[in-house]
Amino acid sequence: MNMRTKFTQRLAEIEIVPGTRTQLLTYDGMFPGPTFHFQANRTAVVRMRNQLDVPTSTHLHGGVTPPESDGYPTDLVRPQGTKDYTYPNRQRAATLWYHDHRMDYTAPQVYRGLSGTAIVTDDEDTNLPLPKDDHDIPLHVCDRAFNGDGTLIYPALVPGPGVQDAYGNGVLGDVILVNGAPWPVLEVNASAYRFRILNASNARRYEFALDPGADLVQVGSDVGLLEKPVRHRSLPAAPAERFDVVIDFSAYPVGTEVTLRNTLESGNLGQVMRFKVVRPGKAGFTVPDKLSTVSKPDKEVATRTFDFRAGSDDRMRMWRINGQMFDPNASLATPKLGTVERWRFTSDFHHPVHLHLAHFQVVSRSGRGPAPSDAGWKDTVDVRPYEVVDVLARFDGYRGRYMLHCHNLEHEDMAMMANFDVG
Ligand code: C2O
Ligand code: CU
Hints:
The protein is mainly beta.
């Protein structure tokens, strides 16, 4: 069975801040966009009709996608245009993200609404005794800033592209939205839930924790199930990272309110959402000790270093990889199809580094082992200031031109992006 689906990118007015309307760029009038449901190894064709007044390019983040459907920044769908994106989904079950990737304008167009969750399922995942159906919930987390009348505040340079100087490190909002609602409250029963947390923020990092305290039991990373669960008292999440976690509310008495906090902030910004335990539920859930088999990557055939750093000589600050600003005609690496390479990332700041196509495992951080939150196969890794992060990346699936870039979306638009060619 092949999935064929049509979506229309169009303007919509949505009530986000109660009592106001916010005009957004949307997929099918929704923010976040409708959740895509894909079946592993079943090709899905997604038809995007662009009825906006700006060009778009849609990227399935974490997808193993042929280059012509990967949402390359200059592969634009013009206003009134249509494109069929083909997703073969030859990959494991995972929580992915789809979002706009228009050259120079990814940050404002995602900020204005072009963002949604995509879920790939397979038999292995479906057969695991994990919470299902209405106990399996995606949490699309992002921050935005609003004027009193509900309009979004984005400090774009006019004319664009880019942001005003003061926002060169990235744009942060002062309202936290989960599934498009500010600080929502979710009524739960006293049982276990699976939450697929996506940090869909342009630049904000989180450290998620529950209050009153309980563990976030991670079962999946960016691109699939872990081998075994990892328990976190608090869980750091950089932009574009996904964490598939189980929270068991059965330990809380009915009536308890549990806050999902961001411990990097205080006050309103220190809160993400609340869970209200309103009914008794099934107690005694345990996450299986063995979730999946996570293969070790083969031995690397090459090592390459990518340095993520601000340029110092610019009038307007630009961000660079190996000293270069993005050039669509240049390529920084030519890995061979079917091989594994060690890619080393160095940086001057927090840069969440993302590779298209290739999935990787984090093997070291500044000579030490990976962090607990680095477990499993990933497509995005948070490289912290002055850290040296090594990953083993597997270049599998398709030949062609793909990219690596910083997923702080303002950094991305300010040129912190590069091509690599899989040959
Ligand atoms: Cu989520 Cu190239 O992006
Ligand atoms: Cu960056």
